[in-house]
Amino acid sequence: MAFYASVSFGKDSLAMLLLLLEKKMPLDEVIFYNSGMEFQAIYDIRDQMKPVLEQRGVRFTEVRPDAPFLYNMLERPVDSKKNGFHLGYGWCGGPCRWGTKIKTRSLDKLALDAEVHYVGIAVDETKRLEKLEAPKFSPLAEAGMTEADCLAFCYDRGFFWEENGVRLYDILDRVSCWCCKNKNRKELKNIYQFLPQYWERLKELQSHIPMPMKPYSRKGVPYGNVFDLEWVFEREIQEELCGAAPKKERRRREQSR
User: Distance between CA atoms of 210 and 205, rounded to whole angstroms?
Assistant: First the structure.
């Protein structure tokens, strides 16, 4: 029998891998899909775990897409019924999750001979669990571990996903690709504030993609591309700072009485 584990080195899949190793469950190979667009913290944890896997006699296989992510995003010729001919699929996320489809196909193809294919789905991800079919199996669900349990489990074992002195899971709901269109407004604002190196890369991508990354309206005015969001976020941050200053001053005066 062949036992494979798909591991992205986010909180759930890392918790699953650590659980498999601690329980000494059968495991022949770990497969990591490298889109090339992961946060550096993901690559750091991958590099921490590779020697551990080698010591345990577990093969590590890294898969990359057939074509670079940025080629698919910005340059691939696309002729669609809805948008006609254009270059690149654009942002990945929402109804157009082209990157996810490529990732899933690549992982499933590599694990074709698996008797068991471990996947990191927590017990409270009910919709994903309902779609799970053999040979795919969730050790996390079997152990009754929620997403919160998975994060605590990883923290307890010294894995924190830190960049710029910030734990990514403190400011992001999911540490998926840094350019994922599914990131919500709160996450994007936190990237702008705390991870400026990724924000600059998002602006570079937006300069090549006509479609706004996160369309929304504010007081009836449409916003959505990364440059619009930066303007809004900066205004909000300044308003927050101005609002905080009088409160601090009042607190200082009260304490000095």
Answer: 10
Tokens read off for 38: 């992961």
The C-alpha torsion from 68 through 74 and 80 to 86, rounded to 10°, is: -140
* 73 touches 160 (CB < 8 A): no
CA distances from 48 to 11, 44, 54, 142, 159 (A): 14, 6, 11, 26, 9
Find out whether 173 and 190 touch, Cβ atoms under 8 Å: no
Question: What radius of gyration, in Å, describes the C-alpha atoms of the chain?
Answer: 21
Note the pLDDT tens digit of each residue in 189-216: 999 999 999 999 999 999 999 989 987 6
Under a CB-based contact definition with an 8 Å cutoff, are residues 183 and 169 in contact? no
Calculate the alpha carbon distances from 124 to 12, 76, 173, 186 in Å.
11, 37, 15, 22
Cβ-proximal residues to 92 (8 Å cutoff; 6+ apart), any chain? 73, 98, 99, 100, 177, 179, 180, 181
The CATH number of 3-172, from 3.40.50.300, 3.40.50.620, 3.40.50.920, 3.30.450.20, is 3.40.50.620
* Cβ partners under 8 Å of residue 113, min gap 6: 2
Asked whether the beta carbons of 204 and 178 are under 8 A apart, the reply is no
Report the C-alpha gap between 68 and 217 in whole angstroms.
33
pLDDT, one tens digit per residue, over 18-65 is: 999 999 999 999 999 999 999 999 999 999 999 999 999 999 999 999
Prediction pTM value: 0.89
Domain boundaries, the chain: 3-172, 183-257
Contact 13, 155 (CB under 8 A): no
